[in-house]
Amino acid sequence: MSYVVGVDFGTLSARAVVVDARDGAELGSAVHDYRHAVMDRTLAATGAELPPQWALQDPDDYLEALRTAVPEAVRAAGISPDEVVGIGTDFTASSPMPVLADGTPLCKVPGFEDRPHAYVKLWKHHAQQQADRVNAVAEQRGEPWLARYGGRISSEWEFAKALQVLEEDPEAYERMDRWLEAADWIVWQLCGHETRTICTAGYKAIHQDGAYPSEDYLRQLDERFEDFVSAKLDGPLLPLGARAGDLTAEAAGWTGLPEGIAVSVGNIDAHVTAPAARAIETGQMLMIMGTSTCHVMNAEQLAEVPGMCGVVRDGIVPGLYGYEAGQTGVGDIFAWFLDESVPPRYHEEARARGVALHDHLSQLAGEQEVGAHGLVALDWNNGNRSVLVDHELSGLIVGLTLATRAEDIYRALIEATAFGTRVILDAFAAAGQPVAELFAAGGLIKNPLVMQIYADVTRMPLHLAVSEQGPALGSAMHAAVAAGVHADIRAAAEVMGKVARDAYVPDEARADAYDALYEHYVRLHDHFGRGGDDVMHSLRHARPRELARG
Amino acid sequence: MSYVVGVDFGTLSARAVVVDARDGAELGSAVHDYRHAVMDRTLAATGAELPPQWALQDPDDYLEALRTAVPEAVRAAGISPDEVVGIGTDFTASSPMPVLADGTPLCKVPGFEDRPHAYVKLWKHHAQQQADRVNAVAEQRGEPWLARYGGRISSEWEFAKALQVLEEDPEAYERMDRWLEAADWIVWQLCGHETRTICTAGYKAIHQDGAYPSEDYLRQLDERFEDFVSAKLDGPLLPLGARAGDLTAEAAGWTGLPEGIAVSVGNIDAHVTAPAARAIETGQMLMIMGTSTCHVMNAEQLAEVPGMCGVVRDGIVPGLYGYEAGQTGVGDIFAWFLDESVPPRYHEEARARGVALHDHLSQLAGEQEVGAHGLVALDWNNGNRSVLVDHELSGLIVGLTLATRAEDIYRALIEATAFGTRVILDAFAAAGQPVAELFAAGGLIKNPLVMQIYADVTRMPLHLAVSEQGPALGSAMHAAVAAGVHADIRAAAEVMGKVARDAYVPDEARADAYDALYEHYVRLHDHFGRGGDDVMHSLRHARPRELARG
């Protein structure tokens, strides 16, 4: 009687895993692809076109995942459902949604099915205009919480998105009783009542030092927004690992799990990976490396590190301050380069060798000595979050010659993202919160060239999160805590977490060579990112129209 | 009795054309590909490997062109050889070669066939180490001629290359009686005695105000070099259009032309194109646009324009100062991008449409509004000649996003080279020699997108040199002057030159939009090219080894 289920709700699919809480053994897993995926061009219900920067989801897809992936994972594990003692979940964030008082998604309320603002606003939906006001008013008023978010509230987060609903569809705003993260809504569906966690409230809803933003502040954003917190947001916040409630009969029916087992409170996909990799002590930074990279780290002290995404007390593990930083483009940039800049002969060579193009280029690039390509790049093709907090920055490459080849640029782009991480490490060190150990998780850890470059550039050994299930294992660990199998998340991490320590270690000579290139990176970083030359902003604003693509 | 023959000796082939001197009608032409092409990897005679930066030619290939292309062009013209009254030639430069007193190329002297230094050093052969000393000593001594060459004597020119022979193969240096441009040597072969022109001496051999560099200066470069000028270079210099002599019986045998007809003095391919396009008056600048761009312009006054390649009295047309400026990478950069950065689907689309990849990308890029791609590039992938005179600079692109596509970068690169030309125009204007009219010749004039962008960026109408024969027509015009058909090159240009005036005219709105982008270009140009950030030099020097390719 020690099995737990973790469900990781990602951008395009949900993954369920069944884990033995005694040793972390992953016994079975299953994936469910969302039927509506991401609605970023049209609303499925009407076929109506959506504006740029929009990205919606249909919450039915999440419930469908509970009905399919969970029972499938249990079957794959070869255990009896009766042996499962708890279920935990994690979600993309910030992905907030409007619901009625009973939890019904607004988009399922008759008359609202055809309204885009009634759906889940996925993390990659941006309400930039509203975020600009959220920030401007906060700066003007000197709101103390602003510095906890690197000085900038994101256009992805709850306040900007809620304000967008209010302004663009006041009826929808009026009709919604509650506004919450899908991370918290899915828990509501499992245990039958609303709960919220310290984590989502802190990182996505500006909850700091026991309070949300004041009514004064909200009124200044919009008079109708004054009671947003009290009416649609406020309520008790539960710590991570807490038992949100018991699995309802209805949810037991969906999942095939026993009614009444423990349901743990919601969590964020990146954060839940930290205990899964045993990276939860002070100074242990975990990079979750995929299309973008999320850096999470715990520390005993509160510090305001410039350009971080957020620092929240008890935000990742209870008892410590949880720091989050981020790079907005990492794997995305490599994929863009592969799709848009690699000439046919490399594709043919890769085919002839029977390897993926990424692997072919990685091998060619891996044969080079540091600096041989003569290039330095800025990894800002998708803007910059940490430490500049400026999404209008753009990518740059310098050093191009007629002898520059695809593998050279590919390597330079990988190096640029590693330099970007080093800038973040430097910022933490400068703020008195040095990073003592570096962990990596996510899809990119399978590329040895990327991993070795990160070790060399940061001059730190890399410890890898080796679970194949990623965040789902972390969610299962939280379920084990909620079910009382383990006393707390530390104890769970001890026996259920998995890490390959020192999987990559820095090479002294290469690290020395990178020090010199990093100096160039920093000089370019500061020149183009801190006002020396404002060309990136000018180019962005001078565009006669938003290009439709991309 | 008014036909003339022009022969243009290019990098890989020579082209002969038969022209009617009365109206410039091009009656027939023929091309001869050099058997040895460019020897830049191995010496054909021995198979021995050549160092990087080397590029040799075998002068037998030039004679072979006289034997094949000239009679073929005459046959194609359908005229009798007896009706030809003169022959003129132009050549790549600086492409100097060592010869004996009787004109025998050193590489044809027994015992020297296997010595690389006995061959023609093609323009793209670089003697950088020697050029650095040529410049350092000149700067130190304050040689007044240095400013005539934009402050930098090129590693492509005669002094650096001769010094390289002396240092690396003293026996070859000792054995050679004369050192001269292939442009002058081919005339020697045609008329039987050595002549040199004001043009090659001025632009490639530092002949200014009636003198070559002094013996004092030469001794300081190397004691053994003291008598280089007096022993191997000096002699009378003939004006352009002069009759070097009469076609010898031997050369008449090679070419099938009548013995005794006029042979005009040698000339440089870029310069000879100016009269062919009727661009020979003060303020008329001609851009010869191919892999690189050469800018030539005449003016009544002498001015020292920063970063030009050279200014020579009577250097392009008698009576005026001839200015030359240059961009080291233009078509080369576009070709590099096409080869190295365009993904397969564009190749497939071009194939499906039955058009060349250049045309396909040009069409896609041509549909964009100015600034829509959000990019600015520096066109320095092959260094920069005018106005920075720094071959260690490199290319840069800024503004990249995940939505950037191949046609965006392609257009940005074209624009960058146009901005590079505008920098040159600005430098001439600032030096008090404004460019009044802009002409274009060379392979790139066939690309309407490139031409329109140049017109828009410079805000000047473009007049095109429309002869299919390029420089060969200009050589034929000089032959007509040497033969006495026309009084001088102005008169010849009047009746034989061909230009399509106002082939492209600037669009006001686009020109305005480009003004803003040009400001960014100039700021990047100055920051990276004038010491604001020395990253390009550092990257070049930090490379652990010269990459073999390219």
Summarize the structure.
By secondary structure, chain A is an alpha/beta fold.
Q: Could you characterize the architecture of this molecule?
A:
The structure is a homodimer of 550-residue chains. In chain A, a hairpin with a 7-residue loop joins strand 15 (310-313) and strand 16. In chain A, 38% of the residues lie in helices and 19% in strands. The longest helix of chain A is centred in the C-terminal third of the chain and has 25 residues, at 406-430. Chain A is α/β, with parallel strands linked by helices. In chain A, the strands form six sheets. The first copy, chain A, has a seven-stranded mixed β-sheet, with helices on both faces. A six-stranded mixed β-sheet of chain A has the order 3-2-1-5-12-11. A two-stranded antiparallel ribbon of chain A has the order 4-7. Chains A and B meet through helix 11, strand 18, helix 18 and helix 19 of A and helix 11, strand 18, helix 18 and helix 19 of B.
